[in-house]
């Protein structure tokens, strides 16, 4: 399972159902973490472009409010794509991200 740390503001918005996407920068660190988890292949330029038009395997992602194993966490079913995010959910204008679409909050 993939565990991602997240700030309290975004954690609370996801938990309440208000925030439906979480963003991660397109950087080498996430090329391997997200690629290996969602499509079993490290993301590169070609696969990132393909993510705009493809459906990945929907997976469970744990969002943790902090870095400790005791920090509050929520389990969500997510899909992965590349695209622009919403500013009110923490994205910068006209910047592309790995977008984790939150399909369902499973439980806390």
Short description:
The chain is of the alpha+beta class and 108 residues long.
Structural commentary:
The chain contains 3 helices and 5 strands. The protein is α+β, with helices and mostly antiparallel strands. It has one domain (2-107). It has a 5-stranded mixed beta sheet with strand order 1-3-4-5-2. A hairpin with an 8-residue loop joins strand 3 (59-64) and strand 4. The protein is globular and about 35 Å long.
Topology at a glance:
Layout lengths: L1 E4 L2 H9 L4 E5 L2 H11 L6 H7 L7 E6 L8 E12 L11 E12 L1
What sequence of helices (H) and strands (E) makes up the elements? EHEHHEEE
Number of strands: 5
Measure the end-to-end span.
Answer: 15 Å
Quote the beta fraction. 35-45%
Question: Which features characterize this protein?
Answer:
single chain; 108 residues; 36% strand
């Amino acid at each position: 399972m993939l565990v991602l740390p997240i700030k309290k503001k975004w954690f609370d918005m996801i938990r309440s159902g208000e925030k439906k996407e979480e963003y991660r920068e397109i950087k080498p660190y996430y090329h391997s973490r997200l690629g290996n988890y969602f499509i079993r292949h490290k993301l590169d330029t070609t696969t990132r472009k393909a993510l705009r038009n493809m459906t990945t395997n929907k997976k469970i992602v744990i969002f943790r409010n902090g870095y400790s194993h005791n920090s509050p966490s929520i389990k969500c079913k997510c899909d992965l794509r590349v695209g622009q995010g919403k500013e009110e959910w923490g994205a910068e204008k006209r910047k592309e991200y790995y977008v984790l679409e939150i399909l369902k909050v499973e439980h806390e």
